[in-house]
Design brief:
heterodimer, A: alpha/beta, 2 domains, seven-stranded mixed beta sheet, six-stranded mixed beta sheet, 18 strands, 19% strand, B: alpha/beta, Rossmann fold, eight-stranded mixed beta sheet, globular
């Protein structure tokens, strides 16, 4: 544990495990005393639900595990369970998240707390099981809080914190805990599993704004006319605003009561005296950390801002961190087609009007493409010198022999069919 | 059980937003009376989403969760799982009945996957399909439950396909209780709900719900049309448990020879959605096709019934 000795008091660690990111997420749900898990298998999330089904079968978790027949049903069952007043959990990825999209809106707008893990994976076609952030970016506007992790311990700690955030009376919105496919889901790292008692002190029993109450029969989610609808959406926006403070509080109290700290809405690295910065989420942020060290060696006073909470977006934090800078480079692992990297757009929007940093963006690492730190260094240097093209630049795109082969055969087909 | 023996408590309240003569609200009334107050309700997108009345009032005096279209089976599963955990923690005096209420669009078409999944897992809830044989809430488009030759707004010359039979599909899932019901036989419907309440696992009840604006008949004729459906064999009443189907009420009387199977024309003529079969000229071919199916089925059922009676005689006769 990062803070075994804190305030002079020793935090007892139950055990150390060397585990995959997926198994660690399952441990998070177990420690949070989740009572209903409904999930559908999708690579690379499968081990999360395999591990939970084992916990349940072996009596280590007092929980109903529902092996539903689709992700749409997984989210519907979670809504049903949470509406009855029970802590619910699910895990999904990519196409699964896209398939349950309708119900992401439903879960958030009917104001039920719940936590779901999403292992960030690219969307098809063509079939691609590797990492990028397109899946969760497309779920950005559903009303879910989105937290992105960058190491295994953070997955565990964030799942537990997520319940605390989700069930806070000032918030009551569902939380999505995101981490990168394979780079995190399938790699083994050491994690410290806290004592159940410590987690219980941090996370009180399930609470919610409402439940299906036999004593007080209310109707939830019925037809709502234009006269009343806007207020519901406004209340969700207010809840998101409140979540900024609640996320910070949860991170602080978790450090105190359980141990483990990974930043709040953002995590800043070497930003104290920085004139330049890299911005990223997930494991790309870890790669950026290496790049920052190299850039420092090359004479750039550079730091890293890792965005941990994408929704709510840390606009105030970014303004404070970025407005004194000369330049910053935003690394996106997703694209908003017809625009640019979504993170790039939003960082610019957040900083607009405060200070005058020159902000640049690259899109890289789509579909699991490797992003070496030297690519980041090279593009950061170009950005800091003002030599990067405007809009999101795609530094790792190149034509390889497969593309050329396909292009040649397509041209041949077009010629035969008489297409000009 | 007679009508006057139904509990007096009304859990479906007055002043709902239902159309005049709405079969959905009548079905809710009987179901709620049979299941009682200790019931948690999930309503998926259907006419019932609307007829319960808009926010902030409600005609449903049960804790109710409105859900998206395709989610009936799955939401019921989640609610049942949560109820299981809450019961284990001693949170209930008596474990509540979970009731999922869906239309035929939400059951036959968009929701069949979730329903099938829940039935395969034998999730512990009652699933009701009130079948008005079309997407009535969106203005009467065809569904998988719309009968052959019926007019809808997107089958203007009559549906070309025969309806599918989800009650039979549910029987094939091997769930503990499947029943069909009719608004014209409320005591039969009440008995089936009361029975379903005592069974554990997935229970499926399908109620035929003649819809005055969708089927085009006067709103005072809902029960009359429902009765004609049973009397002409267009709707059959039965329950299925322990691997055995038992026909009930009006359908049973026809099979056992106590009542005559009426010609299907009487049912078809009572509704505007089949008007094109009679005007401007009689469509003998399609009317005969419908009659042939029903007659064939009932002849087989009546024959089997007689065979069983006969075999029974053989069994109990000591002289043989």
């Amino acid at each position: 544990m990062k803070t075994i000795q804190e305030h002079g008091e020793e935090k007892r660690v139950r055990m150390r495990l060397v585990e995959t990111g997926n198994h660690v997420a399952a441990w998070g749900a177990r420690l949070a005393r989740v009572e209903v898990v409904s999930a559908y298998p999708i690579t690379p999330q499968t081990q999360v639900i395999e591990e939970i089904s084992r916990f349940v079968a072996e009596g280590e978790m007092e929980c109903e595990y529902i092996p539903v027949e689709s992700e749409h049903s997984a989210m519907a069952a979670m809504i049903g369970a949470a509406a009855m007043g029970v802590r619910a959990f699910s895990a999904t990825s990519s196409h699964g998240l896209a398939y349950m999209h309708e119900l992401l809106h439903w879960a958030a707008a009917i104001r039920l707390p719940m936590v779901m893990v999403n292992v960030n994976r690219a969307l098809g076609p063509g079939w691609n099981i590797w990492c990028d952030h397109q899946d969760t970016m497309a779920a950005r506007d559903t009303g879910w809080i989105q937290l992105y992790c960058s190491d295994h311990q953070e997955i565990l700690d964030t799942v537990i914190q997520a319940y605390r955030i989700s069930e806070d009376p000032r918030v009551i919105l569902p939380v999505m805990v995101c981490y990168d496919a394979f780079v995190m889901s399938h790699t083994y790292m050491q994690v410290e599993i806290p004592e159940q008692e410590a987690v219980d002190r941090f996370l009180p029993p399930f609470r919610s704004l409402w439940k299906l109450d036999l004593e007080r029969p209310f109707t939830h989610g019925s037809v709502i006319y234009p006269d009343d609808y806007e207020e519901v959406r406004f209340s969700m926006q207010r809840a998101m605003d409140n979540a900024r403070r609640v996320i910070v509080e949860a991170a602080g109290e978790y450090r105190e009561l359980v141990g483990g700290y990974h930043g709040e809405l953002v995590e800043a690295y070497r930003m104290e005296d920085a004139e330049y910065a890299l911005l990223a989420m997930g494991t790309l942020a870890s790669e950026c950390r290496v790049a920052v060290d190299v850039l420092r060696e090359r004479g750039y006073p550079c730091g890293l801002v890792r965005i941990r909470s994408y929704r709510p977006f840390p606009a105030a934090e970014l303004r404070e961190l970025l407005s004194p800078l000369r330049a910053a480079l935003v690394v996106d692992r997703a694209v908003s087609f017809g625009m640019e990297g979504p993170l790039f757009s939003e960082v610019k929007a957040a900083v607009y009007g405060s200070g005058n940093p020159s902000i640049h963006g690259i899109i890289t690492g789509l579909g699991g493409r490797d992003v070496p730190y030297d690519l980041l260094v090279e593009n950061a240097e170009a950005a800091f010198k003002g030599r990067l093209p405007a809009g999101s630049y795609w530094p790792s795109v190149r034509l390889n022999e497969h593309h050329r082969l396909v292009k040649r055969s397509l041209e041949e087909y077009w010629r035969k069919e008489g297409v000009r | 059980m007679r009508l006057r023996d139904f509990p007096e408590e009304e859990l479906f309240l007055q002043g709902s937003a239902a159309c005049q003569g709405c079969p959905g609200s009548a079905a809710l009334r009987v179901a709620f009376k049979a299941l009682g107050r200790n019931t948690v309700l999930c309503v998926i997108a259907s006419c019932t989403s609307v007829l319960q009345s808009p926010y902030p009032v409600s005609a449903l005096n049960l804790p109710t969760l409105n859900m998206a279209f395709a989610t009936g089976g799955a939401t019921g599963s989640g609610m049942a799982a949560a109820a299981e955990r809450l019961a284990a923690r001693g949170k209930f005096r008596e474990k509540p009945t979970i009731l999922v209420w869906a239309g035929d669009g939400g059951t036959y078409d968009i929701g069949i996957q979730a329903l099938s999944g829940a039935a395969e897992r034998n999730a512990d809830f009652i699933y009701v399909c009130y079948n008005n044989e079309a997407y009535s809430n969106t203005g009467t488009q065809r569904s998988g439950a719309t009968p052959y030759a019926a007019w809808t707004t997107n089958t203007t010359k009559g549906k070309e396909e025969w309806r599918k039979d989800v009650a039979q599909i549910m029987i094939a899932h091997g769930i503990p209780y499947v029943a069909t019901a009719s608004l014209a036989y409320p005591t039969d419907m009440f008995r089936k709900f009361a029975k379903a309440k005592e069974v554990k696992g997935t229970r499926y009840i399908e109620i035929q719900a003649p819809c005055p604006p969708g089927w085009k008949f006067p709103s005072a004729h809902t029960v009359k049309v429902a009765r004609l459906a049973v009397q002409t064999g267009m709707w059959m009443l039965y329950e299925h448990e322990n691997g055995k189907t038992t026909y009930t009420a009006g359908t049973q009387r026809i099979i056992q020879g106590q009542a005559k199977l009426l010609p299907v024309e009487e049912y078809l003529k009572a509704q505007g959605r089949f008007r094109h079969l009679f005007h401007p000229e009689r469509d003998e071919e399609r009317i005969a096709a419908i009659q042939k199916r029903i007659s064939g089925l009932f002849e087989a059922l009546q024959f089997t019934h007689k065979m069983k009676e006969h075999l029974m005689d053989i069994e109990i006769s000591p002289r043989l």
